[in-house]
Design goal:
- This protein is an alpha/beta fold.
- The chain contains six helices and six strands, in the order βαβαβααβαββα.
- The radius of gyration is 15 Å and the shape is globular.
- Keywords: Flavoprotein, FMN.
């Protein structure tokens, strides 16, 4: 294990699929936030001892869902003890729309990481924004803070665009590389 954990909430399975791609790239372990916004005590211990933490959640109504917010609020106990200070952080999100105000979710993640005294890893991939670009290209939605993923509302997680999933995997690789450099 790399000492990196992807902690995520997934309402319909789309975010879980993206989390799996990020974790694959980072050689990380997954921690799912349940439908009540909770993780186990063992999961808290894993996050406290982690070298890196990657947040993931869908964007609902322009921000994180309440389940992720409950997890974030519960991390105030960790904040008080500074247990996540100087850890490497990253984050990703998805929504049904191409934009869907996903940037707000990434800013929420960045702020949470900063509150904990963490070090944020940007996406680091130029956008695919030429006339020849397709949804199969890396960073075709043009993110910079982290991966932006579009999950069609009328389809299952198996129809997430390949370029978005490849971007998620590559982001995991980047977070792992930066975590290793800072170790």
């Amino acid at each position: 294990m790399s000492g990196i954990y992807v902690v995520y909430f997934s309402g319909y399975g789309h975010t879980q699929r993206v989390a799996e791609y990020v974790a694959e790239g980072a050689q990380a372990s997954l921690i799912a936030i349940d439908n009540n916004g909770e993780i186990t005590e063992q999961d808290w211990e894993r996050l406290n001892s982690a070298e890196g933490i990657i947040f993931g959640a869908p964007t609902y109504m322009g921000n994180v869902p309440w389940q992720f917010k409950k997890f974030a609020d519960a991390s105030s106990k960790v904040w008080f003890s500074r247990l996540w200070h100087n850890k490497v952080f990253g984050g990703f999100t998805n929504s049904a729309s191409l934009n869907g105000d996903k940037q707000n979710t990434l800013i929420f993640f960045q702020t949470l990481a900063a509150q904990h005294g963490g070090i944020w890893v940007s996406l680091g991939i130029l956008p695919s924004n030429t006339t020849a670009a397709t949804r199969e290209d890396l960073n075709n939605l043009g993110g910079s803070a982290g991966p932006l993923v579009q999950s069609p509302s009328d389809a299952g997680a198996d129809l997430i665009p390949a370029g978005d999933l490849a971007t998620a995997r590559q982001y995991g690789v980047r977070v792992a590389e930066i975590t290793a450099r800072l170790k």
